[in-house]
Amino acid sequence: MDPYGLRRVVSPRGVLPQRADVLDPRLPPGEDELILDVEALNVDSASFRQIEGAAGGDPDRIGAEIARLVAARGKLHNPVTGSGGMLIGRVRQVGPGHPAAGRLRPGDRLATLVSLTLTPLLLTRIDAVRKEIDRVECQGTAILFATGLWALLPEDLPERLALAALDVCGAPALVARHVRPGQKVLVLGAGKSGALVCAQARASLDGRGLVVGADRSAAALEVLAQLELCHRVVEVDATDALGTMERTRQAGGPFDLVVNCASVAGTEMASILSVRDGGTVIFFSMATSFTAAALGAEGVGKDATLLVGNGYVPGHAELTLDLLRRLPRLRALFEQRYVR
Amino acid sequence: MDPYGLRRVVSPRGVLPQRADVLDPRLPPGEDELILDVEALNVDSASFRQIEGAAGGDPDRIGAEIARLVAARGKLHNPVTGSGGMLIGRVRQVGPGHPAAGRLRPGDRLATLVSLTLTPLLLTRIDAVRKEIDRVECQGTAILFATGLWALLPEDLPERLALAALDVCGAPALVARHVRPGQKVLVLGAGKSGALVCAQARASLDGRGLVVGADRSAAALEVLAQLELCHRVVEVDATDALGTMERTRQAGGPFDLVVNCASVAGTEMASILSVRDGGTVIFFSMATSFTAAALGAEGVGKDATLLVGNGYVPGHAELTLDLLRRLPRLRALFEQRYVR
Question: What is the ipTM of this complex?
């Protein structure tokens, strides 16, 4: 058994696949591996833009560069941006020692929820490069390790809709774990994960409590309010910690739980000042600075539990897809804004 | 009332004191402020080294540069390193609206537990620059806001000993909150905070459970073991995630709680791989990368609670000083290694 895929690491030896320079996607399947026939790569946006720029925007050259990268590294791990993406494929083979043995069958269609930076990949053909959606339709073989996350693509939801939600499914799932009825919850950032978090927090409150959505975009807030994903909205610049604290306090703060889904840097203090003493902040923003959070709370003597938003919570994919099924207005928002 | 000290911010207006370029340390005291007569500045090590280098190592020039910085900014906030330090002083005046009114009296001797980067400071004289301990003996006035943390210097412990422990007192206090009897605890890093965390974890287990100390230094581990601050020790390179997981597993892992007190970067995955599913990792290392922690856990499908080590927990100073009083061997270790 090899739950982290060490057998696939060619160089340097002994590191985890994500830190490896080169993986070997060919070896015979391990008994705890899941083998996929690849249909499409959803390339990370930063990576796609970099490759597109280097290729002068030409789809054929973009495809050739991606094929070259994958051939060289055994994975789609852009050395410039450090990022990958995810893929869609069908199950070819489930090793008897894989945790999904018995649950997954050949032909099942799924999306990987772990990064392409750690997914062994062998491409045999590039069929199409779709620049408008950062997608490469292709054929090949990919491998998931026993610890590698995946989600079955649902039959009752359009693929693009499902992918848009799965992309951030850890956020509502972790929020569901922390919200209790009667609490006051502030969500900073009204983008994709912010909207899902608002909806989940409201559902978890079960009719008792308060969800406030905050963003600098009045238009984004208007949508949240119209769809009734939260109780109140408030326009803030979350890089202005004091202004955010004051405005969210007028909207009902301080809060038991603050969920940071902002997409910009410098919003740690706004989160910390807006939570009550003894409350919890969950940081989902990838722009979060560890030291700004740790030292910021100490600097103002705030006793708050500060959580790194772990992208994995068991059942996160199904919870998030169910949220879209149960809330037609949330689904409509996703179809309008995130399904390109 | 002005719990964050906004009235002291000269420029830019509207930011918190830590982000300000200039503070005004002169204004008449606010009714919720604590005014101190300064005795000494304990300058942050990185800041002291930078100033020492720029001053060619000359104590008089170091003192002059510190006086110049404080005069220019109204605080000791080194613009090159971004860091400050803390100070020791005696209470001159406690505003009636300060939370310590009634508890603190003029003449009480205390150490500030918030950074000098946010502490309004006016120096009237530099008495001595003590390069060997990054300390400047001086006279002047400092101000603590209502949210600013402080600790009375205990009469039964030497000052240097108390300061060495207070420097990292948030770590054992947060660990005390999370450890339950019967648990298995791994502490990565056997330095100052690691030793305190081992001792507190062992105390919190109340005789049932396991504390394993891990470090790359056999000498540091030898001390932990001899002093019986933990049950077992294991030599690891925590930047080698897999090696650390394997070696700590042999010592009793996976663990309910992993406390990262390592002083080097790249130890997030070792922490995540060593904790059990459903367990908790507390990151105290200031070298922690937020994204490495968040994406690392997702990449290996680890359902773990990931905590940013907030430096403030109510009662943290007293808890840590009590630990030194109760454990003479821990105190001896601190006196040998950290009291310079």
Answer: 0.93
